[in-house]
Design a protein that fits this description.
This protein is mainly alpha-helical. The protein contains three helices and no strands.
Amino acid sequence: MMEPREKYEDSKKFYGDIKNCLDTAFEEGKEEGKEEGLKQCRIKGLKKGRIEGKKAMIIEIIRKGVSNNMSVETLTQLTGLTEKEVLDIISTLGNDDK
């Protein structure tokens, strides 16, 4: 039969082992979470960059089209935007582009 002191020491070791396992798992989980978070940020950043690039390209197409007297109908066909969307962009362009 174990003495109370031995039981206590064994329970301390068991607790320490479990705590170490949990701490290790927690730290590994944090690292995996950070890596996954960075990966998701990169993906979102690339997507956002592509979207912003496409928007800038469409605006430039409309700006050049307007300066070359293209019709709104032609600009909608070139950009894939609706007539209203094209007109909204045209309204934001400076007067020197019209």
